């Protein structure tokens, strides 16, 4: 029996990367978990909020199954995004990050839940509040932070900044409100054209939801049955304008009109995951596009230049933090179902803080891109060309 | 003719690469608003030739997204006037992306359609966009004159991995041109960025593009009778501009006249003059350069007014003589 426990213990150490055993280990004042694996619930099923539906007979399931490993993974992802965004806040206030910086803290369950339900081979495009998605789509924290600080180690070599980060099957990061939506429909068209059974998740906010080009994209996506999941992240404010002041209809999940829609609790990662799974199945079965509204909230203002309290109360923000924080919701669920220990979460937090700190170190010490790179990447696969500088004697060179 | 050359170019490229497709208003079942895509839908079907609703911003964005995801779209604007509704997608989503992503994301797309004045279509349907698109880094802007230009340049544009704005002219569609033996090949391409000297001359360099190449050649024929030999340069590409070709010519003729249909302010001619001033050819000029352009007004409707809103052959002849001080 003891032998068996050791084997299980070793195996699980490899999976979770932690040293958990049957004994108590003291390191100074820190006590590591003193329970064995047999104590943790490996899997539990949770009731989740029912989605409002539009033009659908039925919606996603009202129960979601979560394994311990999944829970810890989602927790890790959301906490990483949270810490990364808070680090960006700090760097911005130190003037090490410049220009626009739109932070995602509060909305983590959306990015984490969506990624949990799609494949890496699926596609995703979003607007400018993009750092969370850049991470979930596979870019390392240090490359994200170094892009924000404008260094050569940034994912776009410092040439894009906050709103222009890219990765395979991740099309940014887009600065023009609403423009990413037709782009996303186009990516979905490419999926259909190539017959690869992939879908495109196309995100936009409550502010963009009134853009004409969205309705143009909805029309063509429905007409041609494009495998496009249109997702509105409704965080209740388009910059400083509340949804009630901007939209004649705030039922964003219905705004697709002839396109079926779901309204989803965007603070619950399981809700988001189940809804996205439902939506992806819908698209992959050839039924055409679907609209999802994720009801979520951002703790920061619209961007770093917006304190975010002139158009909403601090009480409101605090209420969301205490009652609906996506990370706390998941953690509490897992703890109350004995799926993990408090100390495990603490250890994960510590590890993430360290990772983010190291990434920030990198982002602040990496050199800026060399001036020789100024004119590169104008064209792809072209011979070198001359680029006019600031005056006639400044002839600069551009290579692909 | 010009129209058939465009049709042939698209047909060949659709056949050659299955990632190439055409979308736009009336391109499929109507055979193209100007019949440029005649027969293509019948041959290639719904998947490759797509009729869109009248929603330029939407379908242009869709075309750009498809290009980002690995296809090679040809996005037709019924006229470039309508591209203004979609210009954000052309500039901000297509042109700038390769740079913003430091080479991670390319956009292999062609935006094509008739540009500039037609006949009697009035102000909202007659604007020339060469200068607007020519202004932007990240775009290539091409303006063919004859059928051979049309075929060779369109094939190059489709094969190019970058966003190309391809400016046609409605009045040229029906014009017949001889096509060389070489241009019949399925691999006939003309390089983007290289101008062509259509007529050799020694007294004055005329730099022009699209329809006005014909006007310049006609003016040159008249001037030749008076002993004035004009060198006519067909730009073929607006961006990047073939400054070397222009400078070489000006250094030979010592005189420069630019001719275009677009408005004068901040136009193609203005750019050519500025570039010549900044380079070695300036010291060879015996007179200031002259620009012949469209009149600086919205295009009127009445025929007499329209005719007098655009460069006529007599205007070109007059300008050449003034430049030569004869």
| Greatest interface and its participating residue counts | A-B, 51 and 43 residues
Order of strands side by side in the largest beta sheet of chain B?
Answer: 2-1-3-4-6-5-10
Assign an overall shape of chain B.
globular
- Counting structural domains of chain A, the number is 2
Report the average pLDDT across residues of chain B. 98
Q: Give the total of domains of chain B.
A: 2
CATH top level label of the largest domain in chain A? Alpha Beta
| Shape summary of chain A | globular
Based on DSSP secondary structure assignment, what is the total number of beta strands of chain A? 14
> Helical percent range of chain B?
25-40%
Give the spatial strand order of the biggest sheet of chain A.
Answer: 4-11-12-8-7-6
Give Rg of chain A in angstroms.
23 Å
Q: For this structure, what is the CATH class of the largest domain in chain B?
A: Alpha Beta
Which second-level CATH architecture of the largest domain in chain B applies? 3-Layer(aba) Sandwich
Q: What structural class should be given to the helix and strand makeup of chain A?
A: alpha/beta
SSE pattern of chain A: HEEEEEHHEHHHEHEEEHEHEHHHEE
* CATH fold-level name of the largest domain in chain B: Rossmann fold
CATH superfamily of the largest domain in chain B: Thiamin diphosphate (ThDP)-binding fold, Pyr/PP domains
- Quote the beta fraction of chain A: 5-15%
Main pleated-sheet profile of chain B: 7 strands, mixed
Beta-strand content bin of chain B: 15-25%
